[in-house]
Amino acid sequence: MSRPADADRFRHTALVLDGARTVDTALVPHLRRLLRAGEPVFMVVGDHTATAVRRSLGAAGGALEWGDSTGFYQRLGFAYEGFRRHLAAEHANGRHVHVIAEPDLTGGAGDTTSTSRAAEYLAYESICNDTYAPYGSPVTCVWDSRRHPPDLIDEVREVHGHELTEDGPVPSRTYRPPGEYLAGRDEVSLDDVPGNAQDLRLGDAAELGRLRAALRSSISRAPFTGEAADDIVVAATEAASNGLVHGAAPVRVRFWHHGDTFVVQADDAGGYPLPPDAGYRPPEPAAGPGGRGLWLARQLADTVSTHARPGCTSVRMHFPLEITNRNPA
């Protein structure tokens, strides 16, 4: 398959900040270079970074375009798909914008474990090297090493093809393509399901109605909005249906409250390994109604983890209260 011409314009770059490399000394000079070159720049960063950029650039900062970070950083799959659609719309209008993004791993994530959310975030950072490339808009991601552990920053360098230095973007020496980076993720075991989880076993699709009713009863114990509850039920039903169609019956569905997070796990009896990029790429329009279950689950849940072992394939979804109650726009 030939590479789209605009893909050669795409560059996914990490800007790693530390005590010496700050917003003022590293990001602002980069922005000045982009503005002098006449490149449109779209900023989606936190309040602290935005304030520092505006202060340093002064009137020159008026040329920057600003996005609402709360509008983009929602459920992880939805957030990345939102970015993809934004870049696709710009491309359709004949524009290439340079995106400056500052990841938010914690805002509204509730009791979702930081490790699982960071792992899922980096998976999307990896796959966007393929899914964003056709639109030809460079993306620079700002990561502050003072706010994240060293091993996470090491992985940041693995999912970005370039790193921004004083001399400009240079190829990352540790970059791994998406297929290589994502390989083997479903071999990592999930944490044990708590003993107080509700437990249903489904033999066929006719029992999905029983699952929906049980889910709604359990969800009602927390202040999820009606729309959020609908999203949880749809995601869980899709995961269970996916197991019945593509795995093997029976499908065991367990769900529980963990602090402010509602968790659902669907286990089918197939034990088939999942493709490394399963559910991360938008389904092809010609694919028909099948093959969308995991994609939809990743759009509706905040994080989705998978695990395959002989005789069992598991899909676990986390729905933090604050993030799930945000109305995706």
Query: Overall mean pLDDT score?
Result: 90
Number-wise, the strands total: 12
Total of helices: 11
CATH superfamily of the largest domain: P-loop containing nucleotide triphosphate hydrolases
Major sheet description: 7 strands, mixed
- Domain unit count: 2
- List segments where confidence is low: pLDDT < 50 over at least 5 consecutive residues: none
Describe the structure concisely:
The chain has 329 residues and is α/β, with parallel strands linked by helices. 38% of the residues lie in helices and 20% in strands. It contains eleven helices and twelve strands.
SSE diagram, text form:
Blueprint lengths: L11 E6 L5 H14 L4 E4 L2 H11 L7 E2 L2 H4 L3 H17 L5 E4 L12 H18 L7 E6 L5 H10 L2 E4 L2 E4 L6 H5 L15 E5 L5 H12 L6 H21 L4 E8 L2 E8 L24 H8 L2 E7 L2 E9 H5 L4
Parallel strand pairs: 1-5, 1-6, 2-3, 2-4, 4-5
Antiparallel strand pairs: 6-7, 8-9, 9-10, 10-12, 11-12
Helix pairs in contact: 1-2, 4-5, 4-10, 5-6, 8-9, 9-10
Structure description:
It is a single chain. The protein has two domains: 178 residues, Rossmann fold (3-Layer(aba) Sandwich), CATH 3.40.50; 139 residues, Heat Shock Protein 90 (2-Layer Sandwich). It is 38% helix and 20% strand. Strand 4, helix 5 and strand 5 form a beta-alpha-beta unit. By secondary structure, the chain is an alpha/beta fold. It is elongated and about 65 Å long.
